[in-house]
């Protein structure tokens, strides 16, 4: 059985201890490091090369969003699962735009957390049901024409100038899947190329100019 090597990043000792105890009950999880802020998380990730990072959002020195963005820049294939008490639209979107592969709330049931860790470690997305609902509502209300969360992730990387190969590596999917997502995006937005898709997405509020600076 392959063990999933984890780093926990959270500024509350009680939370870290609770997660340690909870995750220790699973034979395929191994905690290899703990960080009390985003800067420590980035340093630990570079030093220890874990399989996954459990990331809190609100931390001193460097918050979880900034740490996630930095981690994904240095190690593009390393998945980050956000585990937080905050579920506002801005928090969720900032985390996903920074490259978070999953987003769970700290009151999630143990089994949901365990499943999310295993899914994210395998390259799948893991979003809490309330988070998924918020994203879908935002997409529909902003004229997203039904873009899925994964399609929005692909479009975000397109806006950053990433190639299909880079997007595939970052999202742990094949280039053929990226192309399929782009075809669906073009169809839903009524465009025929990547540049037009990004422009329409910016106009409709699906993407922000901050995307380009990640």
TrEMBL record:
<dbReference type="Pfam" id="PF00196">
    <property type="entry name" value="GerE"/>
</dbReference>
<feature type="domain" description="HTH luxR-type">
    <location>
        <begin position="140"/>
        <end position="205"/>
    </location>
</feature>
<keyword id="KW-0805">Transcription regulation</keyword>
<dbReference type="InterPro" id="IPR000792">
    <property type="entry name" value="Tscrpt_reg_LuxR_C"/>
</dbReference>
<feature type="domain" description="Response regulatory">
    <location>
        <begin position="5"/>
        <end position="121"/>
    </location>
</feature>
<dbReference type="InterPro" id="IPR011006">
    <property type="entry name" value="CheY-like_superfamily"/>
</dbReference>
<dbReference type="InterPro" id="IPR058245">
    <property type="entry name" value="NreC/VraR/RcsB-like_REC"/>
</dbReference>
<protein>
    <submittedName>
        <fullName>DNA-binding response regulator</fullName>
    </submittedName>
</protein>
<dbReference type="Pfam" id="PF00072">
    <property type="entry name" value="Response_reg"/>
</dbReference>
<dbReference type="GO" id="GO:0003677">
    <property type="term" value="F:DNA binding"/>
</dbReference>
<feature type="modified residue" description="4-aspartylphosphate">
    <location>
        <position position="56"/>
    </location>
</feature>
<dbReference type="InterPro" id="IPR039420">
    <property type="entry name" value="WalR-like"/>
</dbReference>
<dbReference type="GO" id="GO:0006355">
    <property type="term" value="P:regulation of DNA-templated transcription"/>
</dbReference>
<keyword id="KW-0597">Phosphoprotein</keyword>
<dbReference type="InterPro" id="IPR016032">
    <property type="entry name" value="Sig_transdc_resp-reg_C-effctor"/>
</dbReference>
<dbReference type="GO" id="GO:0000160">
    <property type="term" value="P:phosphorelay signal transduction system"/>
</dbReference>
<dbReference type="InterPro" id="IPR001789">
    <property type="entry name" value="Sig_transdc_resp-reg_receiver"/>
</dbReference>
<keyword id="KW-0238">DNA-binding</keyword>
<keyword id="KW-0804">Transcription</keyword>
């Amino acid at each position: 059985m392959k063990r999933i090597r984890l780093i926990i990043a959270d500024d509350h000792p009680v939370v870290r201890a609770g997660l340690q105890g909870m995750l220790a009950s699973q034979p395929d999880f191994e905690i290899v490091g703990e960080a009390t802020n985003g800067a420590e998380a980035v340093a630990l990730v570079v030093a220890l090369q874990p399989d996954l990072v459990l990331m809190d959002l609100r931390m001193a020195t460097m918050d979880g969003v900034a740490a996630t963005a930095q981690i994904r820049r240095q190690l593009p294939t390393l998945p980050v699962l956000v585990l937080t008490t905050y579920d506002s639209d801005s928090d969720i979107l900032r985390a996903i735009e920074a490259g978070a592969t999953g987003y769970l709330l700290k009151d999630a049931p143990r089994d949901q957390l365990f499943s999310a860790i295993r899914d994210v470690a395998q390259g799948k997305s893991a979003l809490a049901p309330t988070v998924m609902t918020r994203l879908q509502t935002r997409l529909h209300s902003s004229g997203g024409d039904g873009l899925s969360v994964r399609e929005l992730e692909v479009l975000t990387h397109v806006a950053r100038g990433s190639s299909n190969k880079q997007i595939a590596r970052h999202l742990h999917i094949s280039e053929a899947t990226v192309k399929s997502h782009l075809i669906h995006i073009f169809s839903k937005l009524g465009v025929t190329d990547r540049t037009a898709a990004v422009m329409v997405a910016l106009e409709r509020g699906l993407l922000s100019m901050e995307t380009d600076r990640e």
